[in-house]
Amino acid sequence: MDKSKQLFSKSKRSFRRRLPQIRSGDQIDYRNMSLISQFISEQGKILSRRVNRLTLKQQRLITIAIKQARILSSLPFCNNEKQLDRAESIPRTTSPRTKNK
What we know:
Structural class: mainly alpha
Distance between the termini: 92 Å
Number of strands: 0
Mean pLDDT: 76
Largest sheet: none
Low-confidence stretches: none
């Protein structure tokens, strides 16, 4: 085989089987907060399927469950812990505005 043909031939990669994070007995539901919190980043974003190592069907169900939990206020839309800490540490001084006539 020529070197030019070797460059374009597909390399045989070993197929790595995905290890399911969700067990068969786990219920994917908006009330299962311990399961849902594994699939949310520190900023409150839903992690991708590649990061989670989930199947397409599992990722869809997790996404729906997270969105339902957010709507029902059992899960925040975004994680504002850093903003809350900063807001508490900075004292606010409010002065009433007066209109000059």
